[in-house]
Amino acid sequence: SFNDISSPGLVRLNNDGTVDSSFAVGFGANGPVYAIAVYPTNSIDAGKLLIGGAFTNFNGTPVGRLARLNADGSVDMNFTANFGLGAGGDVRAIVIQPDGGVLVGGTFTNFNGAALNHIVRLNADGSVDTNFSAKVGAGANGVVEDIALQADNRIVLVGQFTQASGVTRNHITRLKPDGSVDPTINFG
Q1: Tens of pLDDT along 18-32?
Q2: Model pLDDT for residues 39-50, shown as the tens digit of each residue
């Protein structure tokens, strides 16, 4: 609850700090929500948001630890249907890219049944970007706790890993936009 208003796992506030009653999550998430990303107002999905965490359903709908919600708080089934089983472990980080792609990081070692270690890119429709997965290769050998997108679309990952895509990286690495390790930087 927030200010004595029931809203399990997620609440949207108005500009004045009051709870937005038009955003109704029903039963909400059945576990913790660790990450949230809001679509830009100039995008085709304006008003929608992505949430990730340790939950396996949202308002009674199976979602596999990741869900895209409509502006009213309901699950966007078009997106959810495209990633199937979802993450095989907790989602800890979500970033929406300018092209509508979604970067997801966490404790998972598979996504929709495919071996994807701690990092995955979803296409704008929610399907796994297999080209990105091929470039990221083995992924990270530990949890991806956060993701940042640079202005040049390079991707910075931080977390509990010591290798990314088979290259020694001590808890921080940078990927090229295609998912391959950026060899021009080594944080030591």
Answers
A1: 999 899 898 999 999
A2: 999 999 999 999
d(CA 87, CA 53): 10
Locate 88 and state its tokens: 């095989």
Q: Are strands 91-96 and 102-106 parallel, antiparallel or unpaired?
A: antiparallel
Centroid of chain to Cα 19: 24
**DSSP structural state of residue 133:** H
- Report the largest interatomic distance among the alpha carbons of the chain, rounded to a whole angstrom: 51
CA 173 to chain centre: 18
Is pTM, for the whole model, over 0.85? yes
In order of 38, 81, 132, 140, the CA distances from 78 in angstroms are: 17, 6, 22, 29
The structure tokens listed for 81 are 């249907």
